[in-house]
Amino acid sequence: MEKPRVKWVFQEGIAEVMLCRGDKLNALDRAMFDAIDETLNAVSRQKGLRAVILHGEGRAFCAGLDVKSMLRQPVAALEILKREADEATNLAQRVAYGWHQLPVPVIAVTQGVCFGGGLQIALGADFRFSTPDCRFSVMEIKWGIIPDMSGSVTLRNLMGMDTAMELAMSGRELEASEAKSLGLVSRVCADPLEEARAFARTLITKSPDALAGIKQLYTQAWACSDETMLKEETRLQRQILGRPNQWRATLNSLFRWRLPFGPRRNAL
């Protein structure tokens, strides 16, 4: 029986998702694309989901596209780019942008290498915690292609256009320290997985409605006009203010109570 490409566990509101192709540095073949997509769908339907940690098995987070595999299956390479008429994303984009679309905080943990499609998957997370020796690259130029797994959307929120274009056009490798200085990495730490777990445990003590609202607000803020975002701040606050989770957060802070939060509102 073939080893699963992705495994995930759910405990106390936190989903831990692991790319499980460590012998290939978690490189993306067609089966890996399908497995990530299926896992995303399953995680998004999980009741009580409060946070997600995404990491890779073995020596690397993800080395990017398994080019040799795709060359052996040229039809598969075309299939992952196919977009249904009523969908905004194709399969290649969903496995990265899908993490961005989840209404909960997502933390990617990187080690070893985070190249090409692997970097675009990590960019779909809200935070990236990295080991000091991890290397990063927008590597698609090496194969004469462009970054097409939602990187054009997620990268623009982290850095200026000139820097993003320089990385994409050169394909050069970055050490974690430089990646952090450019905004690609949130934290550089000796044990990023444990730090991600500790951060997730902190986040689940906060109101799920407020966390979802913050993610939605800040995601939109970098791409919309000031007027649009000022109106959106008011709209989101009205959806949160006075609701049970907001009252619980207030009472917990005022009286040091530990009232448990209820389910996240489905729509804000």
UniProtKB/TrEMBL annotation:
GO molecular function, one term: isomerase activity
Pfam family, one: ECH_1
InterPro entries registered for this protein in UniProt: ClpP/crotonase-like_dom_sf, Ech1-like, Enoyl-CoA_hydra/iso
Transmembrane segments: none
Superkingdom in the source lineage: Bacteria
Entries under SUPFAM superfamilies matching the protein: ClpP/crotonase
Matching PANTHER family: DELTA(3,5)-DELTA(2,4)-DIENOYL-COA ISOMERASE, MITOCHONDRIAL, ENOYL-COA HYDRATASE
NCBIfam families: PRK07509.1
Family stated for the protein in its record: Belongs to the enoyl-CoA hydratase/isomerase family.
Record's protein name: Enoyl-CoA hydratase
Source organism per UniProt: Aeromonas caviae (Aeromonas punctata)
